[in-house]
Structure formats: C-alpha cells, structure tokens
Design brief:
Elements (H helix, E strand, L loop, with lengths): L3 H7 L6 H9 L2 H5 L5 E3 L6 H16 L4 H13 L1 E5 L2 H20 L6 H15 E3 L10 E7 L4 E8 L18 E2 L5
Parallel strand pairs: 1-2, 2-3
Antiparallel strand pairs: 4-5, 5-6
Helix pairs in contact: 2-4, 4-5, 4-6, 5-7, 6-7
Length: 185
C-alpha cells in the first residue's frame, strides 16, 4: 500500500485493473499486435504494460506456430513495450510484474527454450522499463529499439525519448551489436 504522502509527493494515481481493461478494450488491434510499440510515460508499477503483455501472449497462444516462431513472437511482445517512471520502486515493481506475467505464461508451455526466452526478456525489460522524468528530463531518457532481422537476430538501436541538442558537448551513444533472441546480454 502506497502512502498518501508519497502519492501527493510524486503525483501518483494508480489506474485500477477494471479501468485499464476497459480502456484497452477500446483499441484491441493495437494492444494485441506486437508490431505496435507502446510507451507508458508514467508507468507506475505497470498496470497498463502488464495487461498489454498478457493480451499479446494470449494472441500468441491462440495461433499455432513452430518453436522458433513462438520464441521470436514472445521476444517481439516484450521488446515493443516501454515504460518510464520517476520512482525507482515503481520501475522495479513494473519490471518484476512483467517478468512474472511472462514467467507464468511460459510455465504453461513445454517450450524447450523457455528459460532462455525468460532471460532474454528480462534483459530487454531492464533496458526498456527505466527510471526517468518524462516531463522535466526527456532528453536524458535512453531506451533501446529491438528490430527483428534474419535468423533470429535483432538489431538494437539506442534512442532518446526526446532528441537532445547535439552541441559541442554531446557524446554519441555506442553502437550496439545485434543480438540473438535467445542470447541477450
């Protein structure tokens, strides 16, 4: 339970599950389609992101696919979700809830690479659910876009929530190596 002081200090308002569900029901195609990227700029403990991940995983479950397609689809579901929150505890809780959602889903499957999928997803969640201030410091928030390529590899590209001024003091972010969906660092 969050204190009222904390809620007032941080401006926290946690959206109830019933409201989250109703809102997402209004845009079912965008929510279920992992090709759509979702940014929750004040993600709290992840109510929206967890529900979207759950719906995307249900979509995978409803469509028969090969083992490799299954694994790629799971990673695509996770890699298109982005969350930012000003509070470190909220970010930690959101990451944990997303990981639990995926872990519970994979526990119902007999996929031989479930553990590797979970580890890859955890690495992606760490890069895409971050602490930051989307109102006052969007140029300081760096996320990673994961773009599917060939043979199960994803290209990874840094991007800023808001592009910073590229002045004399701007330092380019390092180029990231492609990663295989079962071997994320």
């Amino acid at each position: 339970m969050r204190s009222s002081e904390r809620a007032q200090d941080l401006g926290e308002v946690f959206t109830p599950h019933s409201v989250v569900s109703s809102m997402l029901d209004m845009i079912p195609n965008a929510v279920a389609n992992s090709a759509f990227k979702v940014l929750e700029p004040a993600c709290g403990d992840g109510n929206f992101l967890v529900e979207i991940l759950g719906r995307r995983l249900e979509e995978i479950d409803a469509n028969f696919m090969s083992e490799s397609q299954f694994g790629l689809s799971v990673i695509k579901c996770v890699s298109g979700l982005y969350g930012v929150d000003i509070d470190e505890t909220n970010v930690s809780d959101c990451r944990e809830r997303l990981q639990d959602c995926l872990s519970n889903f994979l526990a119902t499957k007999t996929h031989p690479q479930s553990e590797a999928l979970l580890q890859s997803a955890q690495a992606i969640i760490r890069t895409n659910v971050v602490v930051g201030d989307t109102i006052n410091s969007p140029t300081e928030i760096v996320l990673i876009e994961y773009t599917p390529g060939e043979d199960g590899f994803f290209t990874r590209t840094h991007f800023f929530l808001e592009e910073p001024e590229r002045d004399l003091f701007f330092v380019e972010l390092p180029t990231l190596e492609p990663m295989h969906f079962l071997r994320v660092e």
